[in-house]
């Protein structure tokens, strides 16, 4: 529970990122620059806070291999989200394909982070 509390603000920012993402998706093209930038900046703040919290928790800890695998997977999802988001905004590559990756990555990200937090919480409790 203690660990989960550290992720309340990043969690709220994640939800706000989703809200602005769906809002952005439901507005006409070209993309609304205000919504686009709000979506991008909230996502950036969420990523920075999440990384800070995880680095504090993992410092000096011998984390299980599965936790590391989950965190690497979520990091790859973040990279995919920023890359596809940027490419969609400039209209490069296949928009539909980028959009599909941008819709799947948040689901994998949320599941991966939740599982990593659950495992971290349980391994700290069992110490
Ligand atoms: C953790 C980070 C992010 C998450 C979780 C996220 C999530 C989402 C979601 C759920 C949507 C709505 C997709 C739909 O159903 O149509 C969306 C749309 C969008 N996002 Fe993100 N996003 C993130 C980061 C970014 C970044 C960094 C950028 C830009 C560099 C970006 C650019 C866009 C664009 C352009 C759309 C509109 C796509 C369209 O409908 O045409 N996103 N995002």
Structural account:
The protein is mostly helical and 127 residues long. It has one domain. It has five helices and no strands. It is elongated, with a radius of gyration of 16 Å. The two termini are 15 Å apart. The model has no long low-confidence stretch (mean pLDDT 95). The site of protoporphyrin IX containing FE has 22 residues, from helix 2, helix 3, helix 4 and helix 5.
What is the secondary structure topology, with strand pairs?
Blueprint: H1 2-6, H2 8-25, H3 33-58, H4 65-90, H5 95-125
Helix pairs in contact: 2-3, 4-5
Bound molecules: protoporphyrin IX containing FE.
Gyration radius (Cα, Å) is 16 Å
Q: What number of structural domains do the residues give?
A: 1
Work out the strand percent. under 5%
Number of strands: 0
H/E order of the elements? HHHHH
Short description:
The chain has helices at about 1-5, 10-25, 35-60, 65-90, 95-125. It has about 130 residues and is an all-alpha fold.
Fill in the keyword field for this structure.
binds protoporphyrin IX containing FE; elongated; 127 residues; mainly alpha; single chain; 0% strand
């Amino acid at each position: 529970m203690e660990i989960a509390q550290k992720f309340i603000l990043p969690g709220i920012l994640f939800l706000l990122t989703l809200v602005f993402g769906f809002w952005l998706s439901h507005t006409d093209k070209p993309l609304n620059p205000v919504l686009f930038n709000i979506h991008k900046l909230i996502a950036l703040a969420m990523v920075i806070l999440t990384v800070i919290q995880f680095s504090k928790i993992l410092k000096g800890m011998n984390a299980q291999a599965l936790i590391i695998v989950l965190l690497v997977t979520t990091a790859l999802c973040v990279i995919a989200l920023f890359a596809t988001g940027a490419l969609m905004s400039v209209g490069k590559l296949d928009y539909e394909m980028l959009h599909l990756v941008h819709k799947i990555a948040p689901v994998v990200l949320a599941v991966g982070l939740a599982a990593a937090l659950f495992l971290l919480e349980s391994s700290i409790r069992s110490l």
